């Protein structure tokens, strides 16, 4: 757990910041400690007045507001109730347990985190000392909470937060050598451990961003019958390249069986982030009236959209990836306004537009980050399973040469 404590002169400003996050579907209020009513019953005015009752009792103290953020690893198992308990323990530990405070859960980053708003003026006008609070009191309780709740340690988490997954640079990999396994293993572990996917096809779509493909084998093959899984590097035209890596040989063992165990849990874990994704898609569609503008707006938020179709030009599915919060949604899971047909209608993209797109045939520079990849891609396949779920055979023969249409 990484704790950050910032002192300020405006509790109003801190509240405005967090309440605006709620309006934008990027946060929710978890608790209101020391308030007469539940968070849902409190207006902005109610929240502000509760704090100002205290700050008016000591107008000499100008730096009277505290804005705290507690940041967790994606590997930490955290529901709202556990976050409330952690917030209470932390506030007790830094000497603010008797103060009124508001706890907000934010969904605007890839890792779980909460924000806490409070003031350092106690009842009667006494000022609570905050000098070096981060260095001493916060550090002590932070370590205690990590042990109590079995959280990822701050030192390890800081390294984790600094790590950003990038597409594998195929030109730098020597096929068949150790570099291949190392590159694939690193990517697969990160995706399997931190992304919230609820099906094999969603997992596959995320992996493809990073030039890796998971292979279950053709139906009827020994690999498929035994529930096996291998991973390969994914070439620029959708072909598997290099030697396959067995799932069981990768540390953390991302086998098909182990992946399937995650689906129901991920379905619950991604719930808080669906509203953010819909809000950002709606906002982009409202603000931009062409594909370029839409892509520009969404790339800043880490969102990518995959439309699934066949060679006849039929689009039958859509998957949304929010790389900021590391969540994946089929369009139908977000709601009827976000399915493939609705997306095409709302954006004004026609099937003719998709058919007329130039295929990606010329050599291009390899992507060095997700920001350099197209936001909207059309993935064509003549062999599908369910809504937008590609078969493990991958792509049609034609598309092994030209895998992706880019909407640019």
UniProtKB/TrEMBL annotation:
Composition skew (Basic residues), residue ranges: 396-408
Phylogenetic lineage: Bacteria, Pseudomonadati, Bacteroidota, Sphingobacteriia, Sphingobacteriales
InterPro entries linked: Endonuclease_MobA/VirD2 (IPR005094)
Species: Sphingobacterium phlebotomi
Protein name: Relaxase/mobilization nuclease domain-containing protein
Region (Disordered): 387-408
Limits of the MobA/VirD2-like nuclease domain: 17-151
